[in-house]
Write a structure and sequence with these properties.
Distance between the termini of chain A: 27 Å
Strand content of chain A: under 5%
Oligomer: heterodimer
Largest interface: A-B, 25 and 30 residues
Radius of gyration of chain B: 25 Å
Largest sheet of chain A: none
Order of helices and strands of chain A: HHHHHHHHHHHH
Radius of gyration of chain A: 20 Å
Number of strands of chain A: 0
Order of helices and strands of chain B: EEEHEEHEHHHEHEHEEHEHEHEHEHH
Chain lengths: 251, 339
């Protein structure tokens, strides 16, 4: 446990001393800010204009602005996560510092978990800063906090699974570009998996698809099935990363 | 303290090391000597638990590296061949991280870091970014990293590579200072380093241990006879005959015999090598014989094998190292010194 924390702490310190964290944050906020602007001043304004008078009971600004915003955020994440995770293990391989870590009294699990915790904390910082968007709306209007919590839960879970996949890809190759490319390919694949679903066929593909599980969360429905799907995906890929690291001793 | 028990490691079809067996006693400095690609790094990586052996067993500080890796690793300080440094850290930050990683008690970390930096002579760059340090200082920070948790066992893969001669002397002094309190294995291909620092030498070639011994005994074992170089002012007529009559003298090689074609009265004919039976010192008798022949003694010294000779002998002619015959030309050491 202490090993995990020591490595997570070092990783965060290194993440923020390199430009990668800042580039990722900037990229995220530029795109998200633009999407938010568009949703507030175009979609929301249009729907208000169409109302002509008092809004009906089911009029919900949160659903009009934030549900599509978070759905779009998932695409931003598909591009962002490879950048955040590509260096996690690859960089240690390239600089040969992995030899220091694996010959220290820490388990492979602690090394992988330390890396994962660091990446996840960075992602949490990202989400925490993005809270300015709902908060700025809350100042001038009423928000559906339940739906908003469900949206954030969805993004956190999606991020947890994405980061685990990125971490795994990073254990495979010491080249960061290759790690990023593999991550991107895996994320896209898991995202579009449900597209090939036959309307009346077995639901294997859509139940493995990130998109289908995520869209039910952005609709405001927190189903344990979806929560478990993301958590077990994250756990599975973290486990694979530990195996990949452990197996190097034998290669 | 360190026990390697028939360690073997294969990379695919190729064996990097085969049946490497040796022990290091507590407090000893063991030199690991071999040409590039001999398996030094592979052996060290197995001892530190970075690689698993294909077969065999490594025990460090009483713990089997495969079965109790964490316990063994707690007692190991390891300096890999490629320095494991983070360029974006300063040496103090880096060593603090390593100390935490090696489970140094939280209150002692600061002292441990300061001590390691001072011992390795990197204290004056403690606040600079590692990426801006010269190669010599990076090497020192790397060594400090291996020492920071005061481990009982130190495994150093080429600790003085890329340093200038003055720095090499400093680092060797640091390593010598560890004798007695730490068990050290260091690999090197710089031969004088092994004689300067190590108590015993392991010579490894092509993945197998060729010899484990002190340097003096290695040299003695490879030497078929005691050789003494004699240089005289004049070539007395019966000098060679007199020398050959001394008890225990096996043969006398004169300069002209050494290099066929050189005329007897040329300079080299006044040099000869007296070979005596192993363990016999014939210098006194040789001196007397030269004086009695009226040849004018100029020089008389024992020819020791240099470590280079030992090393080359071990890694090139493993099969028949000790026996040299007159017909096969001069022995390697005679050529080097007398020629």
């Amino acid at each position: 446990m202490t090993g995990t924390l020591v490595i997570a702490r070092k990783e965060l310190r290194l993440l923020f001393s390199s430009p990668i964290a800042y580039v990722a944050l900037a990229m995220f906020f530029v795109v998200m800010g633009y999407l938010f602007f568009g949703l507030v001043f175009v979609s929301y304004t249009n729907s208000v204009l169409q109302l002509q008078g008092t809004p009906p009971a089911d009029f919900d600004p949160t659903r009009i602005i934030f549900t599509p915003l978070f759905e779009d955020a998932s695409f931003v994440l598909i591009l962002l996560v490879p950048i955040l995770t590509m260096r996690l293990i690859s960089e240690e391989d390239r600089t040969h510092t992995m030899e220091l870590l694996t010959t220290s009294p820490v388990t492979s699990t602690a090394i992988i978990m330390g890396k994962y915790v660091a990446a996840f904390l960075l992602f949490c910082v990202l989400l925490a800063i993005s809270a300015y968007m709902p908060l700025s709306i809350a100042v001038v209007g009423r928000l559906d906090w339940g739906l908003l919590a469900s949206l954030y839960a969805g993004l956190l879970l999606l991020g947890a699974a994405f980061l685990a996949i990125g971490l795994f890809a990073s254990t495979l190759n010491e080249n960061q570009i290759v790690a990023a490319a593999v991550t991107l390919a895996l994320l896209l694949l898991f995202w579009v998996l449900g597209f090939a679903q036959q309307p009346n066929g077995p639901t294997v593909l859509s139940s493995l698809s990130f998109a289908d599980h995520f869209l039910s969360l952005t609709g405001g429905l927190v189903d344990t099935q979806d929560v478990l799907f993301f958590l077990s995906t994250a756990g599975f890929f973290v486990f694979l990363s530990v195996l990949a690291l452990e197996s190097r001793k034998w290669r | 303290m360190i026990e390697a028990d028939s360690l073997s490691r294969a990379y695919g079809e190729r064996w990097a090391i085969r049946d490497v067996t040796f022990q290091a006693r507590e407090g000893e400095i063991l030199g690991f000597l071999g040409p590039n690609g001999a398996g030094k790094t592979t052996t060290m990586r197995i001892l530190t638990g970075f690689l698993a052996p294909t077969s065999g067993r490594a025990v460090v500080a009483g713990f089997d590296v495969s079965e109790k890796p964490l316990d063994a690793k707690r007692h190991i300080g390891y300096l890999p061949e490629v320095l494991p440094l983070y360029d974006d850290f300063t040496p103090s930050e880096y060593l603090t991280f390593v100390a935490r990683l090696k489970q140094v008690d939280g209150r002692k970390i600061r002292d441990a870091v300061d001590h390691a930096l001072t011992v390795c002579g990197a204290a004056d760059v403690a606040g600079r970014l590692i990426r801006n340090l010269s190669r010599g200082y990076r090497q020192r920070v790397g060594l400090a990293q291996a020492l920071v948790h005061d481990p009982a066992v130190l495994i150093l893969d080429e600790p003085t590579s890329a340093m200038d001669p003055r720095q090499i002397v400093e680092i060797r002094n640091v390593i010598r200072g560890l004798r007695g309190s730490h068990t050290v294995i260091l690999s090197t291909h710089i031969l004088p380093e092994a004689t300067a620092v190590c108590d015993r030498v392991i010579v490894i070639n092509d993945g197998a241990v060729v010899a484990v011994d002190t340097y003096e005994q290695l040299a003695a074992r490879l030497r078929g006879s005691e050789k003494t170089l004699v240089r005289v002012a004049r070539q007395g007529g019966d000098l060679a005959f007199r020398l050959e009559r001394i008890p225990d003298v096996l043969r006398v090689i004169t300069g002209s015999a050494q290099r066929p074609g050189v005329t007897p009265d040329s300079g080299s004919s006044r040099e000869m090598i007296v070979e005596a039976a192993l363990g016999k010192d014939v210098r006194e008798e040789v001196a007397r014989a030269v004086v009695e022949a009226g040849a004018g003694l100029l020089e008389l010294r024992p020819l020791a094998m240099s470590l280079e000779d030992v090393f080359l002998r071990l890694v090139t002619q493993e099969d028949a190292p000790a026996e040299e015959t007159a017909g096969d030309g001069p022995p390697a050491e005679g050529q080097g010194r007398a020629g």
